Amino acid sequence: MIKKSKSCSDKIVKKDHELISPSYTRSYPLAIDHGERVYIWDADGKKYLDFTSGIAVANVGHANPEVVKAVKQQAEKILHHAGTDFYAEIQVKAAEKISSVTPGRFRKRVFFTNSGTESVECAFKLARYYKKRMRMIAFLGAFHGRTYASMTLSAAKILHKDHFAPLVPGVTHTPFPYCYRCPFGLEYPNCRLRCLDYLEDEILKKITPPDEVAAVFVEPIQGEEGYIVPPKEFHKKLKKLCKKYGFLYVVDEIQTGFARSGYMFASEYFGVTPDIITLAKAIAGGLPMGACVSRKEIMEWPPGSHASTFSGNPVACAAAIASIDYIKKKKLWKNAERLGKLGLKYLNELKEKYEFIGDVRGLGLMIGVEIVKNKERKEPDAKRYKKLLFDAFKKGLLLLGSGSTTIRIAPPLVITQEEFEKGLEIFSSVLEGL
Ligand SMILES: Cc1ncc(COP(=O)(O)O)c(C=O)c1O
């Protein structure tokens, strides 16, 4: 028998396992070589249709030529300028651009970061500093990152916290309206958002003194938990509650931001304006960057109280400007909204056909398909879910997992209808073989 030689991808995966921290979360052995628009090629030259956008990052498509051009031009000028200590026009321009697109027509200030978790750390510190209160409210099912404050705010998987205690003191979690699995066993709208009453009547009366709470941290749509879209009135009511008690309303748009939800920011869909907004992922078309943006009067803290060497890196700033300009020029939120509706319709039809599709939900091009053992008991079906992810990969379609067993569908927002339908057909053919 001729021994089959190992592929380039196999060799990369093997070396990765030897050299790199095993804490990364890989669902299938994809070793990426390059990407273009909505496609990825692996190290052996196999082409994939990307329904992940590199985890909601490549909204403007992989290797977007306008972003690449801006990066090249800036890289030739200077790669690093130490934003902690020196000024740069490109950084000011990026702040101006970000301020102009984020919700709220008021004066703002921007703190640049290098990742989502850092944006949340900044918001956490800023909220404490501004309010001179130490407690925070966050939601069950939330994911805000993996450094200490953001990890403490998160409550999606016990694995994220296991053996990392002690966490940051002062965070209380309260139920999020995950209506498919309502923690109160109720149904919307008859529930009248019992989850918010629970926060006010139980948490704030029995556990967490409201005059010690600095802020509520919330994702407009929970990402890591499986694209959980709350009822539309939820955020308005939550913000009202924040106002009543003097809490800052901090919205984590790291995954929902930059046109993914069919709106530039999902806060617009819910009709709310955050006091502080955290950003990252798609902000710079694929370069590592994040930002924490607040009302101007909130971000008043002394030099040195918060800073970072790479903060506002000039190449990342150039990429952010080009990426935001591209999103605006192409009105990518419109494509996300139109194809998102089409996707929801198609996937809801599949839900009728298969007993193991428990729920289909989403907004724009962020759609969750929850895999269960059967519709009645809603028990997560981990085996079928893992097979689905793997079989799709084998058929050239990249999907993302989330929650206990929810498939996330989040292609680059430049995807055409034809490409999107092609991906959905592959998805459907994978379901047939499960
Ligand atoms: C809503 C949200 N917040 C924060 C983060 C953390 O971002 P990062 O992985 O860049 O630290 C993520 C990442 O998935 C996220 O989805």
Q: In sequence order, what are the helices and strands, one letter per element? A: HEEEHHHEHEHEHEHEHEEHHEEHEEEH
User: What is the molecular shape?
Assistant: globular
CATH topology of the largest domain: Aspartate Aminotransferase, domain 2
Order of strands across the widest beta sheet?
4-10-9-8-7-5-6
What percent of residues adopt helix (DSSP H or I)? 25-40%
Describe the protein in words.
The chain is α/β, with parallel strands linked by helices and 434 residues long. It folds into 2 domains: 8-63 and 331-432, Aspartate Aminotransferase, domain 1, CATH 3.90.1150.10; 66-330, Type I PLP-dependent aspartate aminotransferase-like (Major domain) (Aspartate Aminotransferase, domain 2), CATH 3.40.640.10. 38% of the residues lie in helices and 16% in strands. The chain contains 13 helices and 15 strands. It has a 7-stranded mixed beta sheet with strand order 4-10-9-8-7-5-6, with helices on both faces. α8 links the parallel β7 (213-218) and β8 (248-252). The chain is globular and about 70 Å long. It starts with 7 loop residues before the first helix and ends with a helix. It binds pyridoxal-5'-phosphate. Residues 115-117, 120, 143-145, 219, 223-224, 252, 254-255, 280 line the site of pyridoxal-5'-phosphate.
Walk me through the topology.
Blueprint: H1 8-19, E1 32-36, E2 39-42, E3 47-50, H2 53-56, H3 65-77, H4 89-101, E4 108-113, H5 116-131, E5 135-139, H6 148-153, E6 171-174, H7 194-207, E7 213-218, H8 233-245, E8 248-252, H9 266-270, E9 276-279, E10 290-295, H10 314-330, H11 332-353, E11 357-362, E12 367-371, H12 382-394, E13 397-398, E14 400-402, E15 406-409, H13 417-432
Parallel strand pairs: 3-13, 5-6, 5-7, 7-8, 8-9
Antiparallel strand pairs: 1-2, 2-3, 4-10, 9-10, 11-12, 12-15, 14-15
The protein binds pyridoxal-5'-phosphate (PLP).
